[in-house]
Write a structure and sequence with these properties.
The chain has about 180 residues and is mostly helical. The protein contains four helices and no strands. The protein has one domain (about 5-175). It has helices at about 5-50, 55-85, 95-120, 150-175. It is elongated.
């Protein structure tokens, strides 16, 4: 006969798996919506650059490709992270730690790309490519944007990857000892 604590633990595990399934569906929907907007913006800027000869839009298209691939990579990694738990596999594993580390790296690359792009616009590094356009919410002076939220997200994901790796290795050591 199964005791009450075991039933309660199994119930909590099922609830956690169900929450991961729902969150995975939300991230899949976000991936689809983002993908549609990303591809439409990419097509419009490429069309404007190639047919109208506006080379500033070509720069934006290149930025959009890199930015979009990084965001899609983050979303796919998050979906994979949630899928593992939703499918009943152990969440504390070296594979999950690697996934979290990949998310951290992609998020940090996103911060660097956004910083480089805003610096290129602010300092007019390549004015022949149309980077002299300022979009700063009505501010007359140019600014450089640092996405501190994404930088913090990257740091948190990196920290979690170290914690997950440590926990997975402790679990492996415990399993081998028993």
């Amino acid at each position: 006969m199964v005791d009450r604590e075991t039933l309660e633990l199994n119930n909590r595990l099922l609830k956690a798996a169900h929450a991961c399934k729902i969150t995975r569906i939300v991230f899949l929907a976000a991936l689809v919506v983002y993908g549609l907007f990303w591809l439409s913006a990419l097509l419009m800027s490429s069309y404007s650059a190639l047919l109208a000869g506006n080379y500033g839009d070509l720069w934006f298209a290149a930025y959009s490709v890199v930015h979009g691939l990084l965001v899609v990579g983050i979303l796919l990694s998050l979906i994979g992270l949630l899928s593992t738990v939703a499918n009943g596999k152990p969440p504390l594993s070296v594979d999950q730690a690697d996934r979290l580390k990949r998310i951290s790296g992609l998020a940090f690359a996103l911060v660097v790309i956004e910083l480089a792009f805003s610096a290129g616009i602010a300092y007019q590094v390549l004015p022949q490519f149309g980077l002299q356009v300022f979009i700063n919410d009505g501010i007359a002076d140019s600014t450089i944007d640092l996405n501190v939220g994404m930088l913090a997200f990257s740091a948190i994901m990196y920290s979690l990857s170290a914690i997950f790796r440590y926990a997975a290795l402790l679990q492996q050591l415990s399993d081998e000892t028993v």
